[in-house]
Amino acid sequence: MVIASVLSLLGNEALMAQSYKVGVCDWMILKRQKLGEFDLAKQIGCDGIEMDMGGLGQRELFDNKMRDDQEARHFKHVADSLGIEIGAIAMSGFYAQDLTKRDNYMALVEDCFDTMDKMMVSTNHLGGVKVAFLPLGGCGNDWSTDKVKRAEVVKRLHNIGEAAKARGKRVGIDTPLDAKGNLKLLKEIKSDGIAIFYKWQTIVENGWDVVKDLKKLGAKNICAIHASNTDRVWLRNDSTLDVPQIRKALDEMGWSGWLFVERSRDVKMVKNVKMNYSANVYYLKEIFNSNPEPAVVLDSEGRDPDYVKTIISRSQKATDELGITWTPMGQNVLNIICNRYFKLNDIYAERDSIKQSDKQLAEAQCDAKLYRSHWGFLTDLSMYLKPQEIDKVKDVMTYDVVKVTYEAQCDMIPTLKEEEKQQIMAWLIEARELAIDAESSKKKHEVFGKYKGRINNYLTKRGYDLTKEREAWYERVKARGGKL
After folding, report:
1. 480: buried, middle or exposed (CB in 10 Å: 19+, 13-18, 0-12)?
2. How large is the angle between the packed helices 36-44 and 273-288, nearest 10 degrees?
3. How far apart are CA 20 and CA 87, in angstroms?
């Protein structure tokens, strides 16, 4: 499997107690300082979040809800109850705001430090959050080469760093520089309270080597990592990043800390927050920590590996449709669906074996086992999914025939009465319940075929001339440029 190959690549050091935690940036999952960020982070599979201080814009201070002590306690209580840590506090407003033009920059930073103290993690009630994020993007593209501008940036960062150090914190800055440039900058700043909040995207976009750059910068100079690239593909599909080798380098450096996913969204589904971030978090945990085993064990032992891969791929269509494939819940649901296919295969294989000596017994035993396991399957799904989500799983397992057939019937006969539509849907749902247990695609369609015949008989008795309705339907479809 993937995890085994990664561990083999990394060597024995990958098995050592290296501490990595994976989180997401709350402003990127559209939950900036919203209580829902903790539940969403839990669903995605995160260890924690990087909480933003709120918008800045033309405001005097950040739009920070955490200045209200009661609000802060409420946020912390929800985070604790869900087991989600606040790994860092971000001042993302400085992506657009110029640090050198904010006369009250220290007030803004102290506001961040106060919030860090309030958002203490469960395992460290004394010290609060230790890392802050400060991007320098708002300073412009030339601050690092403009001597006057650079001197002002350095002076302010020194002040910020000393204030951070006095409060037991570090401020991680995001710069456009490589390791050599960052080391020179840190030397100029002269404060242990300032470190680099390392960003893979910056390195890749400049054509630099992440592994070499990390090693040159050194573990002590990195306080946290934005472990993602620009939006294009998920991390697991990104050919510009060798994440296993990055892990190996960090292990060798002795670095540990937070990896936060900022971007790396699939541009084909860029608005699908849960799918994008859960896919990237799952991959990072696969590489850096190895994900915890799902509660539902995949019943793959003793089965042909190619067959298992086929079943996993088939089952994943359902979890993809629900947008949960790479979530912890999704892995359990995926295994439940896979195990259902395995069970069906076993039941029908046993039937075929018994058929050779007693056909009647074979069918009776098959029907009994199908009935019992059918409800067991639905019960297992109900542990993780809502009723409408279970219906979606059934639809995927039966090629969405219910929806396609129902919509076709309504399109063919626009004059259908409401009670007739309800009857058609009821029969299609009944057919679906039987079809999910059928042994093959052909058998599933045969089940629906029988019920389509029942529907046609019903409509004929209700006075519909199906031949004329179908001919008229054909002409309407043809007129709008479609095909039947």
Report:
1. exposed
2. 50
3. 11
Q: Is the dihedral of CA 19, 25, 31, 32 positive or negative?
A: positive
pTM for the model stands at 0.84
**Spatial distance between the Cα atoms of 236 and 198, rounded to a whole number of angstroms:** 20
Q: 197 near 173, Cβ under 8 Å?
A: yes
pLDDT, one tens digit per residue, over 26-85 is: 999 999 999 999 999 999 999 999 999 999 988 999 999 999 999 999 999 999 999 999
Q: What SS3 string covers 280-311?
A: HHHHHHHHHCCCCCCCCCCCCCCCCHHHHHHH
441-466 tens-digit pLDDT: 999 999 999 999 999 999 999 999 99
